[in-house]
What does this fold into?
Amino acid sequence: MRWLGLYLRSRRVPAALALAVAVAGLAWFVRADVRLGALTAMLAVVAFGAGLGAPDEALERTGAVHWPARRAVHLGAVAVLVAGLVGARFEPLAVVVRDVAGLLGLAALGAAVLGAAHAWVAPLLWTLVAVLPLLGPSADVRMQVAAWPVQPAATAAALVCALALAAAGLAAYALRGARA
It folds into this structure.
C-alpha cells in the first residue's frame, strides 16, 4: 500500500482529483448540454494531464519496473474516474465515455510527444474548436471528425475518431511514457 500512496502523490493525483471533482460539481449549477459536457470532460481530463509524467522521467526509466502496464492501468483508472464524475451529470453516458476516452487519448499523446507539462494542449485545443457555435451535429463526415466531442451518440465517425485517439494515446504513453 505504501508504494501506491507514493505513486499517487508523485503523479499529483490528489490535486487532480480535487480539481476534477470541483469542475464536475460546478457543472451541476449550469444548464446541461453537449457542449458543456465536452468542456467538463476536457477540464477533468486536463486536471490529470500533468500527472502523466514523473517528477524525474530519466530516473524513472532506469528502474527495473515494468512501466507500460502501470501506465496503462493509470490511464484506465483516470478514464473510469473521469467518466464516472462527468457521467453523473451529463447524458447519454455513451457520449461521455466516448469524449473521455478520446480526450484522455489526446492528453496521453500530448504527454508522450510534448511532455506531461504540456499534455493539456491537445485536448484543450480540439475541444475549443469542437464547441465553436459553427460546428455541431452534421451529416458531413469531416465535420463529424472535427467536432467529435459534440456529436450525437450514434455518430460512427465521431466514435471511430475518439477510439483511434484513445488507442494511439494509450499505445504511445504506455510504451514510451512522458517525454522528459
Summary: The chain has a mean pLDDT of 90. The CA atoms of residues 103 and 123 lie 5 Å apart.
